[in-house]
Amino acid sequence: MKPFIVVADGFDKNLFEDLKNTNEFDVHPSSKITQEELKELLPKINGLVIRSATTITKEYLDLAPNLKYVIRAGAGTDNIDKASCQEVGVRVSNTPGANNNSAAEHAVALMMTVLRKTAWAHSTMKSGGWDKSKFTGNELANKKVGILGFGQIGQIVAKRIGGFDPEVQFFDPFQEGSDLSYVSKCDDLKKLFSESDIITIHTPLMDATRGLVNKELLSLMKPNAILINAARGGIVNEDDLYEVLNAGKIRGAGFDVYATEPLEEDSKLRSLDNLVMTPHLGASTEEAQFRVGEMAVHQLKEFFINENLLNEVRV
């Protein structure tokens, strides 16, 4: 019997058609399904490909006795209960690196949007206004940019903003330095926050980083500084963020990720005038989705046909 594969949260259209047409798998005909539909399918699923919309919990695993393999089409796997997967023998992989450039560029886009106030200006223009005097912004040129987490995405951000002639510092206990002349390492996180004009977050969500950016660090930021998070929700304490932004203690922020996703309709973050928000678009480019899908299809074939597990993620 062919392995039954379900793609739950969307996929590159052409790659999905190729996957459905392969003789090796029985593929569910839709590449995007509701959580209710997924629960109904779980008892039959052998391989499951998800993005950020689906969370693999113990409850889901209990409904999926035939599940052998879960692929997170992306890098972060904090939406997968990996300990429970290991207990029942379900293997987990991600697609590392496939959306790094997309995520880095989105962080830069948020940075520029907050600095130049383009989102707010656009809103008033659509409403018939011409409020030029209200939207005096700031340049990125010659600013001091602090990067929290200097893995692959953080390093790409540093390269992408290099043409603006910034001074870049990074904090990352696992990275020693950088080949870029304008980048230096900062060993003191409080110093990074107190000295930087822009802080951009690029660390994974794990026990050591959950709630790491809190009132203490936010209170150290310059009054004209901005905070960017296109990494993972939960790294920034959102109650503390709200207090700082609502009081106008920093200039503004740009966020693509939230502790709870989708963000609640009544979230107080939505009321802030100095916060630019996007709905977790970091990996949402055609190029990134093709690379992610290509890796996922290859991993499915390697696992079920060649018994070869690629890019395994464990607790």
TrEMBL record:
Entry keyword set: Amino-acid biosynthesis, NAD, Oxidoreductase
Encoding gene per record: serA
Matches recorded under PANTHER family: D-ISOMER SPECIFIC 2-HYDROXYACID DEHYDROGENASE FAMILY PROTEIN (AFU_ORTHOLOGUE AFUA_6G10090)
Domain D-isomer specific 2-hydroxyacid dehydrogenase NAD-binding: residue ranges: 108-282
UniProt xrefs under Pfam families: 2-Hacid_dh (PF00389), 2-Hacid_dh_C (PF02826)
Protein name in the entry: D-3-phosphoglycerate dehydrogenase
GO terms, biological process: amino acid biosynthetic process
Originating species: Halobacteriovorax marinus (strain ATCC BAA-682 / DSM 15412 / SJ) (Bacteriovorax marinus)
All copies of domain D-isomer specific 2-hydroxyacid dehydrogenase catalytic, residue ranges: 14-313
CDD domains to which the protein is assigned, alphabetical: PGDH_4 (cd12173)
GO MF annotation terms: NAD binding; oxidoreductase activity, acting on the CH-OH group of donors, NAD or NADP as acceptor
Annotated family: Belongs to the D-isomer specific 2-hydroxyacid dehydrogenase family.
InterPro entries per record: D-2-hydroxyacid_DH, D-isomer_2_OHA_DH_cat_dom, D-isomer_DH_CS, D-isomer_DH_CS1, D-isomer_DH_NAD-bd, NAD(P)-bd_dom_sf
Superkingdom assignment: Bacteria
